[in-house]
Design brief:
Ribonucleotide Reductase Protein R1, domain 1, alpha/beta, five-stranded mixed beta barrel, single chain, Rossmann fold, OB fold (Dihydrolipoamide Acetyltransferase, E2P)
């Protein structure tokens, strides 16, 4: 099949002239372009111009877990053979990465070459704004445009209450579209489909957030299995066990992911800054450029909290994510780790001194 024919056949999966130019050296060696639609235990399904092929990833098994083949990658595949192999993949435009649960400073890549990161948040349980901010920090860091979808909106029949929930999330997600959706009744699905109708989107969230139901609504058919959430706590069961790439009738591509129990920071300093742009803007008015917004005099951020301009919950969430991200980065950087320990020790002594001064003033 000619390169022009291949480009036409793969266009619905996101192939474009830039990808074709990047692939040219591999095409010269007789390799076929294809997009990874599923990865499972050292093998993957790759959609090529000739259809979906099963390929082995043994040639792309580096020690760095961020460089393994991932759903959404554009791969260079053997034209024939049994088995076929993925020889390499093209440099990623974007990558959604979280830290692993291990004690080592490792990251895990969840999806590659994504334009929109759709964070599904269930309204069947109490809204956890801190978790939303955590997802958004990683989404911004990935290079994709985040979108928050409040699923199961039919469980909040009062429009005033629903509007307040949307507003709460919007306050915690500056610059991010927030869309309430009831996939069960089809409400809000069209608005989301229009937003993700071009490019590639990844669907993220906890188990029970309604991701598979939402994927079916966007696809216009039951492409993903759906299981009911537990009545005891509203949490879902793991319906999706692998990351799967689906084409949408709107023209876009969707990567559905398994429910995420843990979403750890991984070198996401820029993403945290994006989520908490309001705090970082306030911080520019602090007396000290390295203000930790705790006990320092002249802290514009703490003043905003005292004046009711900034919710204290949001400042605590900011501190938590900054600390976590710093420590994750420091695990692989001895110099930074030493500097952080010295800084925390200095801040601890300063806080202790401030407390003692306050007790003396009371006496």
């Amino acid at each position: 099949m000619t390169s022009t024919s291949a480009q036409t056949a793969l266009a619905r999966y996101g192939w474009d002239e830039d990808w074709a130019d990047a692939f040219a050296p591999h095409a010269a060696h007789g390799l076929l372009p294809g997009r990874v639609v599923r990865v499972d235990r050292g093998q993957c399904d790759v959609v090529t111009a000739d259809g979906i092929v099963r390929a082995d990833t043994a040639f792309v098994t580096p020690h760095d877990p961020l460089r393994v083949v991932c759903t959404g990658d554009w791969a260079a595949v053997d034209p024939d053979g049994n088995p076929r192999y993925v020889r390499t993949y093209l440099p990623r435009r974007t990558a959604f990465v979280r830290s692993t649960s291990s004690k080592r400073s490792e990251g895990q890549i969840l999806a590659a070459n994504v334009d929109h990161a759709v964070v599904a948040v269930s309204l069947a349980v109490e809204l956890d704004l801190g978790r939303v901010e955590r997802f958004l920090a990683l989404a911004w860091e990935s290079g994709a445009q985040p979108v928050v979808v409040l699923t199961k909106a039919d469980l909040v029949p009062d429009p005033v209450t629903l509007a307040h929930l949307v507003q709460d999330v919007e306050t915690s997600a500056p610059g991010v579209p927030v869309i309430p959706v009831s996939a069960l009744h089809g409400e809000g699905v069209d608005a989301l489909a229009a937003l993700v109708g071009t490019g590639t989107s990844v669907l993220l969230g906890q188990s029970g957030a309604g991701k598979s139901t939402l994927a079916n609504g966007l696809a216009g058919t039951d492409v993903m299995e759906v299981r009911a959430a537990r009545d005891s706590d509203g949490k879902g069961r793991h319906t999706t066990t692998t990351r799967n790439l689906l084409t949408l009738p709107s023209g876009g591509v969707l990567i559905d992911t398994p429910g995420l129990r843990g979403v750890g920071m991984y070198d996401a300093g820029h993403g945290v800054g994006q989520v908490f742009a309001d705090i970082e803007e306030l911080a520019a008015g602090c007396r000290f450029h390295d203000c930790a917004h705790e006990a320092e005099p002249g802290c514009a951020v703490r003043t905003a909290v005292a004046d009711g301009v900034l919710p204290d919950r949001r400042l605590e969430s900011y501190r938590k994510l900054v600390r976590e991200n710093q420590w994750t980065v420091a695990k692989s950087n001895a110099r930074l780790r030493s500097e952080l320990k010295k800084d925390w020790r200095r801040r601890g002594l300063a806080g202790k001194a401030a407390g003692e001064a306050k007790r003396r003033s009371w006496n």
